[in-house]
Amino acid sequence: MKNFKQITPESLNSNPFELIGKDWALLSSGTPENFNTMTISWGAVGIMWNKPVAFTFVRPQRYTMEFVIGNDYVSLCFFDEKYRKALAFCGSNSGRDFDKPKETGLTPAFCDGVPYFEEAKLVLVCKKLYNQFLNAESVVEPTVTDNYAAGDYHKMFVNEIVEFFVKE
Ligand SMILES: Cc1cc2nc3c(=O)[nH]c(=O)nc-3n(C[C@H](O)[C@H](O)[C@H](O)COP(=O)(O)O)c2cc1C
After folding, report:
1. pLDDT (tens digit, 9 = 90+) per residue, 10-22?
2. Which of 63, 84, 101, 168 has the fewest CB atoms within 10 Å, measured from its CB?
């Protein structure tokens, strides 16, 4: 990947609470011919099954869901603050209605066919390992259901982070 260098998971020196919850990320999947991206701010990074993983949560109505389901790989891209507007656009408009790269000026690129964006400062290339819908029956703390008034429980994806790239 041009302008990026590969790092180990252990040398990542960003705070995941900041990175995911405050800075947000773009979750992308698809092929060079047909891909989509959307903003996420719920998720986690850590270790599962002895692998470095990223947990992502996608509601069923997202167009991105089709791409995540239909492909083995996804990427997570993190950006500097100056791209906040672009991420806000990708998080409030659907790829069904808009060409998000065209509207935001973000430049798609592909790592072995997996879509990411050249403007990112950190790119995690991920291979899906596991997916499962959250459900009402499994809720322990009742206020969690406040997030699902429409019954649109997220699908959880556990993704192995196979490559970490930071901007050089
Ligand atoms: C800050 C922010 C965080 C979001 N986080 C998530 C998330 O974690 N999961 C999710 O399903 N949708 C999340 N969304 C909503 C999607 O990004 C949004 O519905 C988007 O328009 C879906 O695009 P698509 O239809 O092209 O997939 C978030 C939106 C914003 C603005």
Report:
1. 999 899 999 999 9
2. 168
